[in-house]
Fold these 2 entries.
Entry 1:
Amino acid sequence: GNDLYSNLVIGHTRWATHGKPSIENSHPHFSEKGEFSIVHNGIIENYEQLKEGENFKLISQTDTEVFVNYISVQKGSTLQKILKACREIKGSFAIALLDKQSDKLFFAKRNSPLMVAHDGKSGMVASDMSVLADNYHSCWIMDDDEFGVMTNKNITFFNKNGEIIKKNKVFFNNSAFLDENNDEKFYMLREIKQQPFVLSQTYNRYFREEQNVDFDKLREFESYHFIACGTAYHSCLLGAKYIEKYCRRECKVSLASEFRYDNLLLSKSCLYIFVSQSGETADTIACAKLIKKEGAKCLAVTNVPYCSLNNECDFIMPTFAGKEIAVASTKAYTAQVFTLLILALKLSDNVDNKMLETFVETFTTANSEIDEKLLDKILTFKKIFFIGRGQDYVTSLEGALKLKEVAYINCIGMAGGEFKHGSLALVDNETLVIALSTQMYLKEKIESNILEVKARGGSVLLLSQFEHDVDVEFYIHLNKFDEDFMTIASIVPLQRLAFDYAIRLGYNPDKPRNLAKSVTVE
Ligand code: M6R
């Protein structure tokens, strides 16, 4: 209500990991006696065991409510209770706990990110540094099993034995959190439009300014293995193609959630490259930890400075997308793709600055909106496939992910050549195939895929910079760049398609249901 006033608050915007989304399952959660309230990011894996022998009266299905009650029944001061409870916890947590009696905010973390800022007048804890950067110039990054307590006047940190520790601050590099203003109401559209700026900033950072990446060291490896999740995994697929093309070195690409449970066949002559916008994705961090333990070397390609992933890696190559707020990654993706292309060129020691410079000077997202009439027609199809070959295959995966994520359309991205190995059976006159053709050496191959679709009554929307000999129902003409950049040029209309589609269906594209911006739990 508007009449509420407090100088100490906690809040939580994440989806419940246990129980359905409901008022009862929403944070904050309270101890039975009401002396503690808590917000928690993470998963308490042994919460069922913690309940055993205790008589907590619980009103939610969450692990977090068990956690706060478990803290409450421990003996000693609030700090001692938290320390004792955390010793018994299995899983991940970043917590902020309000102690009603002392009017203090306690915080702690293990395997989930937590950053803390304080300026002597006020303080804030958050699981994302960009939140703090809006209000403070610096922050402390909490390490696992560190604890703290703050009032509005002061802050103290403790180790797991309850001894006071000193921590060093990190200062925000404001450009890393840049949010170049344009007037769009939705962040997703704002971020789509920021892409030319982001790419030229990336170019400047790697070619016009001094930067700290030791490419000579990175060049010493015999092979490269990319690991990531979601959209970042797609940029890795391209990164591997670029390194194979320019450096002729062997590359592998793995999904982090698969890699961490595979039989690890690690090699010390291989560089493991982790790509992540947030640098806080649980599966990706888990892989980096595993690899580090085995003594192999890791490179983090991340957009958020001082993120947990950077801490795990030997080398860091930043992306410069600035703060990305919409859940669907757009500018962070193109920044990753462009940065990985730069990595491949720098590793090959054969950088054609002119080619990169011409691209960043001429690349634009102007006029990328989807024509209203075309959108009306696309909306009538019941099934949508995205197909492409080579780099366009990756774009088809990413284009489909965007449409699923923000417009909730059940669609799929596929390699063009795989289509007739099964999925072609689904094609009928209610099917739209969105085909990408930006690579001259594959032009005829994708044309024959298009003919296969048309022969089965399907319709085709073709995105290309070429003249084609096949008739298609719909066509989006792409601006022409060197073919390595066409993957960036061709994803923009697909990002716009997803955005415009979501708006037309009345969804908020910035906050897709069931999803979180950074997936800090497994
Ligand atoms: O922060 P990360 O790049 O590690 O996140 C990985 C994925 O969760 C992320 O790319 C996700 O797939 C995107 N939000 C999709 O748009």
Entry 2:
Amino acid sequence: MIATILDTVHFIGTNDRSKTLFENNWPLPSGISYNSYLITDKKTALVDTIEYGSDHTYIDTVEHLLAGRPLDYLIVLHMEPDHAGMIGDVLRRHPHTVVVTNARGIKLLDIYHPGIAREQILEVKNGDRLELGHHNLQFVFTPMVHWPESMMAYCTTEEILFSQDAFGTFGTLDGGIFDDEIDPEYYKDEMLRYYSNIIGRYSPQVERALQQAAKLPIRIICPVHGPVWRSNPQKVFDWYAQWATGGSEKGVVLAYATMYGHTKQTADYIARKLSENGIRNIRVFDVSKTHPSFVLKEIWKYNGIVLGSCSYNTGMHPSMHQLCHEIEIMQPGKRNAFLFGGFSWSGGGLKNLQLFAEGMKEKHQWHLYTPGIELPGSPDRAALRTLDAHIKDYTEGL
Ligand code: FEO
């Protein structure tokens, strides 16, 4: 796919509808796009590439747009292979192209693409400029958004922000490439899932990057996944500002693991009680059915989290264990948690949820409603009613 952003700035992207798991971990029900950008000024510059093997026409497309000119610069804003995968092929076609990146990018280049001569690499520092003619690029370091070498390039003359992973989203570009050619709201959910699963852990760094970017007049945002934001870039800027301080909406994500439906009974009872106590946003998930990435996306929005697990080999259910592991990695902070479990010949579900939640309390300012509740076997009406006062107390604390 190609599109003209300006006469001298071109979008070159590809849609990946074959890959089932991004980073071999995150489901891609709507696929994903990889975007790269070519500037054809007095000097020519390619800004990031695409994943190796995702589009066999990529090099031909670059050549078509170069129209016989040499490629002066290959600017590497982010070294993750979904964007740096074609560096080798580009340099084989253009052996004299200068690779532009920062000191950390150089180290990663050595790992992923060894053999590039040091003289062929231009190291830039935060704030450095690269003049291409009309377009002048200024580099803005944004470490950990998404990797330590991550940086953005800001075109001072045309006020374009090449933002690499930031403002990117899962989901292919199905015809429309620019925000005025699509319904931006269609991408909001998948952009939040990308944010909460891929870079949410680095939200303090995202906040710092947003503060830097807020000082710049930005007319167009060109990310490496998803739409180009040229009509209303403020919209995604505002989304990001909200997500970087996630968990601000009043609501509860209730995730449970069950083997034979007994813990589900408790979950549905709690959900109903939450509703009776005035909570309007309640999202309930069976973690054996729903991949953690979709649960995390919802956790990112709301200030309440209720986790329940049956006991499984004296611990929590493996599916709940996986969700807790992903939560520990992505570190949504300051949530109000309520825990419950089910037991039969052994307990362990609740106990292990408590161990997990104590860790989140210590490291990420979770507030735990104690005690958690563990119900035996198939909970009868009387057993379920013992939850009522606890859910009322918990709800009042949200
Ligand atoms: Fe889209 Fe961090 O790579």
